[in-house]
């Protein structure tokens, strides 16, 4: 499979696109430097024993949220943090270790025994603020390098779940144990596969120097101070997402290209040869069709090649996806039509989940099928398609109603919530009142105003489309209203009014 990364850098925004076989699959956008990975000197604002958590002041408008299971102790915190919170769930422990970590989090000591109001501590942002929620924090610091994650407060050695070859896992774990520092633990990252011991040692030396510098700065830092800032978007992407599949990285900024070149030469020399500066006049995202993909990802309806379509709705609680056969009638019967449409929809759904970065609870309403063989095949295709998604997913079996419930790890705001805002007219409903509804609402207000205040006549001021309706289809209603009130009603259009806004003026 051919994979390229496109880096588009402007003074106001940085965007990175992952292109697989000519199609944009993932989009990363940074308008303000993200918080994830940043380390702060913080103060506990309030301990909440009822939910095993605490609000922590890190010098921002919104307090951070720290769970008991994410507090660094000798027995708790490290494994769960790494398993659940590393971006896309890519790095961390084996499934057995992850299960043990989850149990450890549930069995964490009472938070009142770990923290007190006003206590000072060092914390790291493990999840970006999402919507109205503040950032999620951990005091179990993890410094990510190219091949390793260094854990200063945890005596633990682990390895990425995606490294599946038993022999390679054993070799890398042996190297990790051999180079393990006197204090702290290590997690071996996926990109360490096939790397020599001296390369991994160099990565560890860099992380140890970095941690030593962080400790020195934290001693004299004021509360709420940023002690360590994570790399910017294009350097993080190069560190975390460049693997053997990535053939080329195209950068349209000379400054960013030189910065990435310098970073690569120091930490990942094998990647330096994959970097290419793009000097073209035509925007790089236009050349590869990424802008069109982004525009498509902001719409509810996505067409399928067969003539069917899927509809995607994002709510506060979950993502609802509806599969429809549309104009596709090319099969012999309804069962085959539904099955073929569902199979085609699976690949588009997984593509859209990655492209839009949709996370949380996801419910997919597939077209009903009767044959168990078709249902089983559909679930197999869905599971196979999700293997390319680095985000952690979990699928629940197909229900009798044709619904599939699944979860996808939410790591940051979705593309839609990042690029769009709530509609001022519909207030997020997605629908606006029809002109006829507005006319009848207007009639009721005219009656209310005429009865409440003495007047000889009334003037209605509204958008031209509403006035046209009142002079046309609803003119009989206006005449009946004049007779009912025994008052003259005049109409005036105003282009500055929105279609759902009007005024009733007493004269």
Describe this structure in words.
- It is a single chain.
- The chain is of the alpha+beta class.
- It has 15 helices and 24 strands.
- Helix 3 packs across helix 4 (197-219), helix 10 runs parallel beside helix 11 and helix 13 (435-452) crosses helix 14 (464-471).
- The longest helix has 23 residues, at 197-219.
- The termini are far apart.
- Mean pLDDT is 86; it is low at 74-104.
Query: What's the end-to-end separation, in Å?
Result: 74 Å
Task: Provide the residue-averaged pLDDT.
Answer: 86
From the alpha carbons, calculate the radius of gyration and give it in angstroms.
Answer: 29 Å
Low-confidence stretches: 74-104
How are the strands ordered across the major sheet? 16-17-18-19-21-20
Number of helices: 15
User: What percent strand?
Assistant: 15-25%
Q: What structural category do the secondary elements indicate? A: alpha+beta
What is the β-strand count?
24
Summarize the biggest pleated sheet: 6 strands, mixed
Shape: globular
**Helicity range of the residues?**
25-40%
